[in-house]
């Protein structure tokens, strides 16, 4: 597979951009990433003309794939043709806000921003402003964007910045606990309950290989935050409008948080973020309240049009049936392949998300009859239950180097583009087909 153009582009990029990229994960592949020339349905074509089945989908925003349906494209183009932006409100912002409020259980009011990072940053500030408290509980291995309050590692007793440039004093207000660990959450509330503003969690860990919650875990978080007067924030930047359809993951789990952050799909593939929740809390944002939040590009009319057209198309055209059905085919097929070729590995995901975690331990191949059939559900009766990942540390303990250094390249050589490391999700789009699934499963067989 020829990659001369990608190599030359990366050489040029190294001269003008740090690491040759504008987002660190893109350089995860060694010795250099391929550069994309264009998208085509459920595929991408690189600078050298190589074609790949694309399961990255922009790291999640492209629910409909690269070729937008005509009605969606027309709605976006119509708004773009009327001027790029105004520095004043426009009707399309209200239209998209009304759509989200109608469909997402937790959202009574919403504020649009420009990225998932900006959404979670603003949600943390809002939680602190609303409660008058300082500390935030987060899940180890959860990801909430490139922001100071959540780029924290360690545990609740010894939190530390996970990036240079963040003062230790910032990290001291963040309490990391393992996902799915009720005892650890109880402990931090017993010690810090009067100063905990919020628990911030993804409903499903989506940046640590996809880790599903154990039964009752989110209900427990809802109860303990209520008991201590803290807020529960669901970060649905990844799961929003992908897991649970238009109601998002919170509707699938039947747990309503106080605040929800959004990104990716809600902007239809354009830069976006949003914070939604109970009206009395969202009203604390300026200008109606004392928590400052503003942005030149917030509620950008082209992004708002892309988000609204995408979600309306999904609502009216069976998009979720299609993508979730293909996701089920992928995970079921992968489960069968692993049982035969790599029984220690774990299939994870739900709806239109999927991943194979290269877990090091697992049950014997002859004891897999009762395993979860299409993605880990943390089911105690499953023979994998004791060895499947329960939190971010479990995923980090997997064969992450083998995944990146050997497996990823073998899949690429067969024309399949997977996320650039063991941790990122993979996504199905409306543009993918049964044939794409079949070719991908054959590639997994060969690469494993």
UniProtKB/TrEMBL annotation:
It is an enzyme of class 5 (isomerase). One of its GO terms (biological process) is protoporphyrinogen IX biosynthetic process. This is Glutamate-1-semialdehyde 2,1-aminomutase. One of its GO terms (molecular function) is transaminase activity. The modification N6-(pyridoxal phosphate)lysine is found at residue 264. CDD domains: OAT_like. GO terms for cellular component: cytoplasm. It catalyses: (S)-4-amino-5-oxopentanoate = 5-aminolevulinate. It is found in: Cytoplasm. Keywords: Aminotransferase, Cytoplasm, Isomerase, Porphyrin biosynthesis, Pyridoxal phosphate, Transferase. Its EC number is 5.4.3.8. The gene is hemL. Belongs to the class-III pyridoxal-phosphate-dependent aminotransferase family. HemL subfamily. It comes from the Archaea. PROSITE patterns: AA_TRANSFER_CLASS_3.
């Amino acid at each position: 597979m020829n990659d001369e153009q990608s190599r030359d582009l990366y050489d040029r990029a190294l001269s003008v951009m740090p690491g040759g990229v504008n987002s660190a994960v893109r350089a995860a592949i060694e010795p250099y990433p391929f550069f994309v020339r264009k998208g085509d349905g459920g595929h991408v074509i690189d600078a050298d003309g190589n074609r790949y089945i694309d399961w990255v989908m922009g790291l999640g925003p492209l629910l409909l794939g690269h070729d937008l349906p005509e009605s969606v494209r027309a709605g976006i183009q119509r708004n773009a043709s009327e001027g790029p932006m105004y520095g004043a409100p426009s009707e399309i912002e209200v239209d998209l806000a009304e759509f989200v409020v109608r469909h997402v259980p937790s959202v009574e009011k919403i504020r649009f921003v420009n990225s998932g990072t900006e959404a979670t940053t603003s949600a943390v500030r809002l939680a602190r402003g609303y409660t008058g408290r300082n500390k935030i509980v987060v899940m180890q291995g959860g990801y909430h964007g490139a922001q100071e309050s959540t780029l924290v590692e360690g545990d609740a007793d010894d939190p530390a910045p996970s990036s240079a440039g963040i003062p230790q004093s910032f990290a001291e207000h963040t309490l990391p606990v393992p996902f799915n660990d009720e005892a650890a959450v109880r402990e931090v509330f017993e010690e810090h309950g009067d100063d905990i503003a919020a628990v911030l969690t993804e409903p499903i860990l989506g940046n640590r290989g996809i880790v599903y919650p154990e039964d009752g875990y989110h209900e427990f978080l809802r109860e303990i935050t209520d008991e201590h007067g803290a807020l529960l924030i669901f970060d649905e930047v990844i799961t929003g409008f992908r897991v649970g359809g238009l109601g998002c993951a919170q509707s699938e789990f039947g747990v309503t948080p106080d605040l929800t952050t959004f990104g990716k799909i809600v902007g239809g593939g354009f830069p976006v973020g949003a914070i939604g929740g109970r009206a009395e809390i969202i009203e604390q944002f300026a200008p109606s309240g004392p928590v400052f939040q503003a942005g030149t590009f917030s509620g950008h009319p082209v992004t708002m049009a892309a988000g609204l057209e995408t979600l309306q198309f999904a609502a009216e055209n069976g998009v979720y049936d299609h993508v979730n059905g293909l996701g089920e085919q992928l995970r079921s097929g992968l489960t069968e392949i692993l049982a035969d070729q790599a029984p220690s590995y774990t299939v994870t995901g739900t709806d239109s998300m999927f991943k194979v975690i290269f877990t090091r331990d697992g049950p014997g191949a002859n004891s897999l009859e009762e395993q979860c059939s299409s993605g880990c559900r943390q089911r105690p009766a499953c023979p994998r239950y004791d060895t499947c990942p329960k939190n971010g540390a479990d995923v980090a303990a997997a064969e992450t180097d083998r995944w990146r250094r050997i497996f990823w390249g073998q899949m690429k050589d067969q024309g399949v583009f997977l996320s650039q490391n063991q941790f990122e999700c993979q996504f199905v789009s409306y543009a993918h087909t049964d044939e794409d699934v079949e070719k991908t499963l054959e590639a997994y067989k060969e690469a494993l």
